[in-house]
Amino acid sequence: MDRKLKRLEESLKEMRSALVAFSGGVDSTFLLKVASDVLKDRVMAATSSSPIHFSYELREAKELARRLGVRHIISHSRECGNEDFVKNTINRCYFCKKRLFKELKKIARENSLKFVIDGSNYNDFQSFRPGKKALEELGIRSPLAKVGLKKEEIRKISKELGLPTWNRPSQTCLATRIPYGERITRKRLERIEKGEEFLKSLGLKEVRLREYGDMARIEVNPKEIRILAKKDIRKKVINRLKRLGYIYITLDLEGYRSGSMDEILKAGSR
């Protein structure tokens, strides 16, 4: 890890200046911290304000950037106005990333910053990520992935650096809760956000609410299934999600796993 961190610092130093695509998650916070230490006032953070993200994420990103003493700008992405994205095909992320990073490149030019960098790590590049193509086409750099830093290594170093995000659960955009082929609407995103935030309020650390029309499929860490099995908790979940408009509420016995919506793609290729 020490060698990787050293290579990361050297890579950032060679860039001389950069705009960090900053979500406020584990990876981008770590990248912003190291970039700030290396580049000083020649680094800037940009966070997207969008209905595909939880509203609290923007507030947390603002506070983290303030604590790190980094200039921070909010860009307003409009994914729900992009028909290519709304159609929700398997390459949905490509269209989302293309529009977002085009805007970030513009912000970088306006602020005389040479590069736009993102927090993709080594593990991200080993999984199905259509958005990677957009990053490649636009010349966006992913320094964490380039030096081979893995998620658990980033968490460990983040803890050593005193970053409050070191043990934050991984988060993905709300569009990943909707099956491919079903249209993405602001109304659906808002309902999913409300439902998932309620589930988190019950003390669930890793949770996803996947939406299939009027049915909600809940994924939690297998160790936390017992929480939802309690009669009083189960009743609260049923009442809250039915008020949000879901008719059927189901619990996935396989538990939470990243990319579960992609399993249909694997099944179709057999």
Describe this structure in words.
With 270 residues, the chain is of the alpha/beta class. It has 12 helices and 7 strands. It has helices at 2-15, 26-39, 55-68, 83-86, 92-110, 131-138, 143-146, 151-161, 186-201, 225-229, 231-243, 263-268, and strands at residues 18-21, 43-49, 71-76, 115-117, 207-212, 215-220, 248-251. Strands 3-2-1-4 form a 4-stranded parallel sheet, sandwiched between helices. A 3-stranded mixed sheet has the order 5-6-7, with helices on one face. Strand 5 (207-212) and strand 6 form a beta hairpin.
Quick one: overall form?
globular
Number of helices: 12
Largest sheet: 4 strands, parallel
Helix content: 40-55%
The spatial strand order of the largest sheet comes to: 3-2-1-4
- Estimate the mean pLDDT confidence: 94
Question: How much is the radius of gyration in Å?
Answer: 19 Å
Head-to-tail CA distance between termini = 38 Å
Q: What is the element string, with H for helices and E for strands?
A: HEHEHEHHEHHHHEEHHEH
Please state roughly what percent of the residues sit in beta strands, choosing from under 5%, 5-15%, 15-25%, 25-35%, 35-45% or over 45%: 5-15%
Spans of at least 5 consecutive residues with low confidence: none
Structural class: alpha/beta
Number of strands: 7
Topology:
Elements (H helix, E strand, L loop, with lengths): L1 H14 L2 E4 L4 H14 L3 E7 L5 H14 L2 E6 L6 H4 L5 H19 L4 E3 L13 H8 L4 H4 L4 H11 L24 H16 L5 E6 L2 E6 L4 H5 L1 H13 L4 E4 L11 H6 L2
Parallel strand pairs: 1-2, 1-4, 2-3, 6-7
Antiparallel strand pairs: 5-6
Helix pairs in contact: 1-2, 5-6
